[in-house]
Amino acid sequence: MEAVTGSHHFSTLSLSFSHNKTLRSSSAKSIRLSSPSTNASLSSRNWFAKEVWGWVNSNSKGVAVRRYTRGVVVRAEMFGQLTSGLETAWNKLKGEEVLSKENIVEPMRDIRRALLEADVSLPVVRRFVQSVSDQAVGVGVIRGVRPDQQLVKIVHEELVQLMGGEVSELVFAKSGPTVILLAGLQGVGKTTVCAKLANYLKKQGKSCMLVAGDVYRPAAIDQLAILGKQVDVPVYTAGTDVKPSEIAKQGLEEAKKKKIDVVIVDTAGRLQIDKTMMDELKEVKKALNPTEVLLVVDAMTGQEAAALVTTFNLEIGITGAILTKLDGDSRGGAALSVKEVSGKPIKLVGRGERMEDLEPFYPDRMAGRILGMGDVLSFVEKAQQVMRQEDAEELQKKIMSAKFDFNDFLKQTRTVAKMGSVSRVIGMIPGMGKVTPAQIRDAEKNLLNMEAMIEAMTPGLFFLLINDVTSVE
Ligand SMILES: Nc1nc2c(ncn2[C@@H]2O[C@H](COP(=O)(O)OP(=O)(O)OP(=O)(O)O)[C@@H](O)[C@H]2O)c(=O)[nH]1
Fold first, then answer.
1. CA-CA distance, 295 to 286, in Å (whole number)?
2. 387 or 178, higher pLDDT
3. Taking the alpha carbons of 370, 375, 377, 382 in that order, is the dihedral positive or negative?
4. Is residue 424 in contact with ligand 1, taking CB distance under 6 Å?
5. Ligand 1: distance of its center to the CA of 200 in Å?
6. Which atom in ligand 1 lies closest to the alpha carbon of residue 185?
7. Euclidean distance between CA atoms 335 and 322, whole angstroms
8. Domains of the chain as residue ranges with CATH
9. What is the pTM of this model?
């Protein structure tokens, strides 16, 4: 078997990357693809190959061209506007020698504006800006560090503090099952979080059971049963005629019998806070004596989420919050306000509808993302979750020996897809925050098209393509 390599340049994902591409043929024939010149070198007999490569190239170029011709860059990552707003502040310090009381006035105004536009609560913004200003003026000259970089560092540290400093771990009971009671308004993602949390804890080796305590929304029990099945966790249900506190008690007894490690209890939500809901929650809490009472809040509601955490904490006493829908169009107000306003930490965040899309809330990583520095640690952890070590080594060997082929390319794109949406993956890579949503859509479309084309290359067609190009060579 002979293998010839060629280099091909993909501009999809706006992540232009070149790599050697080797197409290996079982018929001892081989192919050199060095587009875009390949297109011209293909014989007219092989119109399909010509069409395919011409089309891929024109599409890839299209993305690249649009990238440079589009005017304002809208960040694709979550909190994109906040990131851009803060960047405006650093830019005002370009060319300055040192941070001074005078030259930080404008940047601080930009920071204040960016935070308010991100829907961070006003008292939080005031304290934040004051603290950053005080530190910035006192910082003096640091050899080799530009004033704008110094300000980024101060803001990074303050953001981390604002979001709670350290990661706030879930607490587990010393003996017997750990009980996690979930509360929250309607539609925030409580039921989904129950299953996501079970899935997350199962990966840490804990056995879990879900308890269906939402007796008001008719579909909630079925939804929980389906999700439980999906993550392979038992679900305790007792219909809709039993009181939620009674269901909770029965579920806990069942879990004790089965020696389950963690019991996660779903409860009913309401459109807004009302006395009946609070009384019911208090009753369920009394019946269970839970280890964790977590309020599920929707990140899209901004600083309103922080107000909710405060109210629920005053009314029923909670241990922390879970912030959902962080993958959506949230501006950052919730993530930045919850701890400071309510005193309660965000313990976990939901970043999508899939069962894998729940992760701990790391204030330092979040600050890094807000500042457009990416989140390499989360990127590596995600990659480790979806890719086996042996596969990674095998891939590395193939690339090193220039034997990376279309099948490997397909396998890679599918593995990356398992890490989440393209925007989410891109957001974790340092320096990749300035990709526009339109570019991401283009990239996703191009990837799907490429996947379809490679899929369409049946062994026969693949053979034809290879034979034809080889004959040209
Ligand atoms: N994009 C995104 N969607 C989510 C996330 N979490 C939940 N959802 C979606 O939000 C919708 C509502 O979720 P549910 O779990 O039914 O919400 P709930 O709080 O149980 O609702 P009630 O039972 O009515 O109180 C569903 O379509 C979920 O798939 C998330 O992190 N990101």
1. 16
2. 178
3. positive
4. no
5. 17
6. 25
7. 10
8. 79-163 (1.20.120.140), 178-381 (3.40.50.300), 405-470 (no CATH)
9. 0.70
